Amino acid sequence: MVEKARPTFILDGMFGSLARWLRLLGYDTIFCNDWVDDDILLATGDRILLTRDKELITRAHRRGLKAFNPGSRPIAAMLRRLQEYLGITFVLNPSTSRCSLCNARLAHALPEEVKERVPPRSFHQHTLYWQCTNPDCRQVYWQGRHWQRIQATLNKI
Q1: Domain limits of the chain?
Q2: pLDDT by residue (tens digit) across 10-69?
């Protein structure tokens, strides 16, 4: 059985929070915070454009591009709409997550590799760490209280 390719996304400046969520959920996501509409359309390609801008959606559809309005807050509602639209289920899995800051993949990291970049209290409470593979970023992640909040949001949808 052939596995269905995961969708990839491009989001306009209205969706910074959603971009971070999609990245943590393992989806390759470009966030176009300061881009003009023409540049967003040129970069969309096979990605799904997420925007609330009706005119931008219309322009994308005229070009044969996929575009969708996931609505507005709360984040759970936007994720639920996306799941329904795409026929997928969002699952939080750090082995497939991407960096919420730069979109690069994450890799397991040894505690001694990240010790200097983790708050001491968190470092003593956790043993599993992931690190952004982008050498210019190297953001560190672990399953702290935020992990429980993310999972609680996913359980709502």
Answers
A1: 9-86, 106-156
A2: 999 989 999 999 999 999 999 999 999 999 999 999 999 999 999 999 999 999 999 999
By the 8 A CB rule, do 15 and 50 touch? yes
What Å distances lie between residue 34 and 12, 40, 72, 123, 136, CA to CA? 8, 10, 19, 36, 21
Q: Please tell me the distance from the alpha carbon of residue 95 to that of residue 115, in angstroms, as a whole number.
A: 20
What are the residues whose beta carbons fall under 8 Å from the beta carbon of 114, sequence distance 6 or more?
A: 129, 131, 140
Q: Which one-letter DSSP state was computed for residue 52?
A: S
Please write the tens of the pLDDT for every residue from 84-109.
999 999 999 988 999 999 999 999 99
pTM of the model: 0.91
The two structure tokens encoding residue 29:
């996501």
Name residues whose C-beta falls within 8 Å of residue 19's C-beta, 6 or more positions apart in sequence.
Answer: 9, 11, 29, 31
Name the amino acid, one letter, at 53: D
CB 39 within 8 A of CB 67: no
Residue 11, strand partner residues: 31, 50
